[in-house]
What does this fold into?
Amino acid sequence: MEKVAVLGAGSWGTALALVLNDNGHDVWLWTHLESHAKEMNETHHNKAYLNNVEIPEAMTVTSDLAEAVKDTTALVFVLPTKAIRPVCQQVKNVLDHKVTIIHGTKGIEPETFKRVSEMMEEELTHNYFDEIVVLSGPSHAEEVSIKQPTTVSASSFSETSATHAQHLFMNDRFRVYTNKDVVGVELGGSLKNIIALGAGISDGLGYGDNAKAALVTRGLAEIARLGTAMGADPLTFIGLTGIGDLIVTSTSQHSRNWRAGNLLAKGGSLDSILQEMGMVVEGVRTAKAAYHLAKEKGIDMPITSGIYHILFEGADPQAMVDQLMTRQKRPETDEIHEMLKAYYLKQEN
Ligand SMILES: NC(=O)c1ccc[n+]([C@@H]2O[C@H](COP(=O)([O-])OP(=O)(O)OC[C@H]3O[C@@H](n4cnc5c(N)ncnc54)[C@H](O)[C@@H]3O)[C@@H](O)[C@H]2O)c1
Ligand SMILES: O=P(O)(O)OC[C@H](O)CO
It folds into this structure.
């Protein structure tokens, strides 16, 4: 049994804390709001974020960060991307030993284009950990919390750290693979949220399965294009944290990104939708980051660009679809084909 602190008591933090609790660990779930900790301790439910399950007695819910991180072997950061830097700064003030650092956050910082592990490294420095582990894959909190079979990847430059995360989380309903492509795993997990917003928009406009399949497939081509330019292994994008997560987020009604896109297409304003949902919709800020990053790097991302214009410039979703469909004629063959060829060649050898 190990003491593990989960930082962030939203839906995903709560679901991951439950997995760790099932595995017999001493789990401390930290929320920055004293009132939230009090409510969860009194009601044994996380009403605002994941009300369908009971918080077990064995799990400690606290708003005291120093108590939470004391004597831990691992910290699991499960926060919105914009809360990563401030919480790392708070952790730095109270952590006095080395731990395995794991994060389950899916986003890119729009101002710097940094991935989450890069932001964490900048804030925490290597005094407190060896290499960060990214836990990512097709995994809705609503299903993990009721023990539906789920598979994810634990990705790190350090095999020891990845294996530690795998050991902490893996059980017969939550299968964890290790993975070395941190860049590909983080970018796949973040960029798929933009395409999921697009899938929600497509459904909201009344389009069918053909349109959604096209969005997912051509969306993957865009993700791979930007991802490889940023140093990712292209094969990662046909794995769990690429196509796997893209499928689940674009097709599931659990997805907050899909839901936000769906409401947008039906005429809601972005601000009111985000306010009403009350949970983080990471694809919004990531669309801003990816749009500007792609522009800077000269990478063609027409779907991402259309979604950016809908989100931030009030473009009409229907007009964006028309624009995508009537672009210049071109062959389909591109890096997706090259990736698949490389993958099958690798399997044969
Ligand atoms: N929900 C899922 O199924 C799921 C699955 C995989 C990954 N993720 C990723 O996990 C991350 C967190 O998502 P979530 O679904 O748990 O979000 P959520 O909206 O359900 O909860 C966010 C939590 O962060 C807290 N928070 C917000 N700002 C904070 C701050 N400045 N300091 C401290 N705490 C703060 C909120 O109080 C809340 O407890 C996101 O990057 C998301 O993409 C979510
Ligand atoms: O609910 P979403 O859209 O934030 O997606 C949650 C997870 O990332 C799915 O793997």
